[in-house]
From TrEMBL:
One of its GO terms (biological process) is rRNA processing. It holds the Pfam family WD40. Transmembrane segments: none annotated. It comes from Carex littledalei. This is Protein ROOT INITIATION DEFECTIVE 3-like isoform X2. GO terms for cellular component: nuclear pre-replicative complex; rixosome complex. Keywords: Repeat, WD repeat. The lineage of its organism: Eukaryota, Viridiplantae, Streptophyta, Embryophyta, Tracheophyta. WD repeats lie at residues 119-152, 258-298.
Length: 418
């Protein structure tokens, strides 16, 4: 199997095409797919998942398909409770998250297909989803112009869920529909960049929980990508241009423009800081050398718009989907209705950087395996103590760093005195 791949989808039924990134060689065409924006994702690099555009406006649902890397026909077909737009999965491929047309977000366990939880996240359709660098936070954007940050452990806290305050932050700075979201590296000190039909990009701080900057655009941006060094980001716009914006410049953040697309840019991807891949409404995919800002290869998807382009590196063995169960429609499929399986988890630490996807996975697994209230109470108490120790340890490290900084500053000042 070729190393890194480009995979691309369209909102009309042209399938999902794949190419080798370095060679440009066309690989497989995965049949039967009309994927919405942000509706295509790689599940732990083991297989592809895609939501589908409903057959009609009155349709009450639309399928989600899974494909193995080496087979053109889909291996699993699921029917969620409503049409799903954006999809995202954690890097291990253990959890799949989808945003619904009603504003709800769904969280599935991939191995079992079980719907672990569903919550009402927005007043209108969810348009995009992204995970933080440590995968403990989920960021969602919506038709209502709101960007929200969700702690995936708090989602399973019954008290928070009942109060409707299970998000960490809710930002309403956008005036219109949110079109894309990207997240920087790091933990609580990382940044979030969002684009909107209001022709702006907003930069938010996770540590401060507020907006840092608003960058105006000449056109609506439907696609964002961030440079791994976080010095710049790329905004693919409806005027056919890709704007390169500085994350540090105050007065004139535009540091370059890529011009070769003649129609709206609909999706972009950047992985290593040297190559940018972009797709547009005319079905053309361009591979750019970022240093020279020149196109090095042009690929043709189909005579249809591009809805998604992804850069992925499939695992060699992939996943045999023959025994993969479909995704459950309800939180408790055995009940056949919208019952809720709420479990009590300890209150999270005061900063989100203490929470990791590993911790989340371990906690969910333990609570799924141990359903009795006695076991749950014991586990809650243990985790509360563990959380308290982590907070105390973090405070000690913080004080140590502050003491060291004060010492070195004093030493430096003493040596510079005449």
């Amino acid at each position: 199997m070729e190393g890194e791949m480009i995979i691309a989808s369209s909102p009309v039924d042209t399938g999902v095409n794949s190419w080798g990134l370095n060679s440009g060689t066309k690989l497989l065409n995965y049949k039967v797919c009309s994927s919405p924006r942000h509706g295509l994702t790689s599940v732990g690099s083991r297989f592809i998942a895609s939501s589908q555009i409903p057959a009609s406006r009155s349709a009450s649902t639309a399928p989600i398909y899974f494909w193995s890397w080496d087979k053109p026909q889909f291996g699993v077909k699921s029917f969620p409770a409503e049409p799903i737009g954006p999809l995202t999965a954690n890097s291990e491929g253990t959890y799949l998250m989808g945003g619904g047309s009603s504003g709800s977000i769904y969280l599935w366990e991939v191995a079992s297909g079980k719907l672990l939880n569903k919550w009402h996240a927005h007043y209108r359709s969810v348009t995009c989803l992204a995970l933080s660098d440590d995968e403990s936070l989920l960021i969602s954007g919506s038709d209502d112009g709101c960007v929200r940050v969700w702690n995936l452990i708090m989602i399973f806290d019954a008290l928070k869920a009942q109060s409707g305050l299970s998000y960490l932050y809710s930002w309403t700075e956008h005036a219109l529909r949110v079109t894309d979201i990207v997240v920087g590296r790091g933990l609580s000190n990382s940044i979030i960049i969002s684009s909107s039909e209001d022709r702006t990009c907003k930069i938010f701080s996770l540590s401060e929980g507020k907006i840092m900057r608003s960058i105006p655009l000449d056109s609506v941006a439907d696609a964002l990508a961030i440079d791994p060094g976080e010095h710049r980001f790329y905004a693919g716009c409806r005027d056919g241009k890709i704007y390169i914006k500085s994350l540090n410049a105050e007065n004139n953040p535009t540091i370059g423009i890529l011009f070769d697309h003649s129609v709206a840019v609909t999706s972009i991807a950047c992985r290593d800081g040297t190559t940018l891949v972009s797709g547009s409404e005319d079905g053309i995919i361009r591979i750019w050398d970022i240093m020279t800002q020149h196109v090095v290869r042009v690929l043709k998807h189909a005579k249809a718009p591009i809805s998604n382009v992804l850069l992925v590196k499939p695992t060699r063995q992939g996943t045999n989907l023959a025994h993969q169960p479909p995704l459950s429609k309800y939180v408790d499929s055995s009940e056949g209705d919208l019952g809720r399986n709420i479990v009590i988890l300890p209150q999270p630490c005061w900063k989100p950087n203490f929470l990791s996807s590993g911790l989340m996975g371990r906690q969910l697994k333990e609570f799924q395996e141990n359903n009795s209230s006695a076991v749950a109470e014991m586990e809650v108490e243990r985790l509360r103590i563990e959380n308290k120790k982590l907070v105390e340890m973090a405070e000690k490290w913080k004080k140590l760093c502050q003491d060291q900084q004060s010492f070195y500053v004093k030493e430096l000042l003493d040596h510079t005195k005449p």
